[in-house]
Amino acid sequence: MALFDRLRQELDRAGRSAQRALDEGKLRIELFRARQSVDRFAQRLGYAVYRAKKAGGEIAPEELTAHMNNVTAAEAEVARLETLIEEATGARRSAPPPPPSAPSTPGGTTGAA
Q1: Which residues contact 78 (CB under 8 A, 6 or more apart)?
Q2: What is the maximum span of the chain, computed from C-alpha positions, in angstroms?
Q3: pLDDT band for position 1 (50/70/90)?
Q4: Does some domain include residue 80?
Q5: Residue 108 within any structural domain of the chain
């Protein structure tokens, strides 16, 4: 029965490890998309400023505020996701190592002479 308990424990550990890896992968995809959002919002801001300057004026203060709020919110989401990934990576690295699978004999001998 001890063998089955050991097998179950190892399968549980492997399952938790795989789930942590999947969760971290999902976070990395979310981070990639959040960074794309920052780029899109910054690009929209740049185009708005360019169009206003090209027309000989300045960008409207409320339009500038809206663009800045979008960029700021997107950057905050990137920072949040980066923190979550760092925590997940740290938890994975600090996980206790698995116990040895088989006892070894001193000197590497098998007892046969």
Answers
A1: 31, 34, 35, 38
A2: 95
A3: confident
A4: yes
A5: no
